[in-house]
From TrEMBL:
InterPro entries for this protein: Terpenoid_cyclase/PrenylTrfase (IPR008930)
Organism: Streptomyces demainii
Region (Disordered): 70-96
Name listed for the protein in its UniProt record: Prenyltransferase
């Protein structure tokens, strides 16, 4: 929805879908539901493009407090797997999100949640994760080797776009 708003796409269902997103973001920020890091990423994508900027900033501030309190995003180099953090059974252990996974650009509302040092450490770890052939491994849990290959291209494009947004050259 954030992408559609940012690109000024209009359709009749946009109003209901936007209301749904506002409600979902509020539930995440208020702790009304179990929060998964990928839900935070989706909320940030919506808030970064939401047309009501004052409301988006207020919601992002509340969500950011929850993210920090519950350590939903690792503010430094991430361990390989999250085994010490309880996970819902349907999610299982996985790789945690890092700062650069949530605050993909310096202009993102999520960027405000982290210090300059945390952002720099996260970007350093992103650069260090580049593999010998120039690509990046997917940070999502892979169920099959084929899924790993499919997500690798997405991870590489996301890494390159994030590094470019922050002015990093590799």
């Amino acid at each position: 929805m954030g992408l559609l708003h940012r690109n000024e796409v209009w359709h009749a269902w946009l109003f209901r879908a936007t209301d749904f997103c506002w409600a979902a973001v509020a539930a995440l920020a208020e702790g009304g539901a179990v929060t998964r890091p990928y839900e935070v990423g989706a909320a940030v994508a919506f808030l970064d493009g939401a047309p009501d900027r004052a409301r988006a900033e207020a919601a992002a501030e509340r969500l950011g407090r929850r993210v920090r309190e519950e350590r939903l995003v690792v503010p430094g180099p991430a361990p390989e797997r999250v085994e010490d953090r309880p996970q819902p059974p349907e999610q299982g252990p996985g790789v945690p999100l890092q700062v650069h996974d949530i605050a993909r650009t310096p202009g993102s509302l999520a960027r405000r949640w982290f210090t300059d040092a945390e952002v720099e450490r996260s970007l350093d770890s992103l650069v260090a994760a580049q593999q010998e052939d120039g690509g990046w491994p997917p940070h999502r849990r892979s169920w099959t080797p084929g899924a790993t290959l499919e997500w690798r291209s997405v991870a590489t494009i996301e890494a390159l776009l994030t590094l470019r947004a922050y002015g990093r050259r590799i």
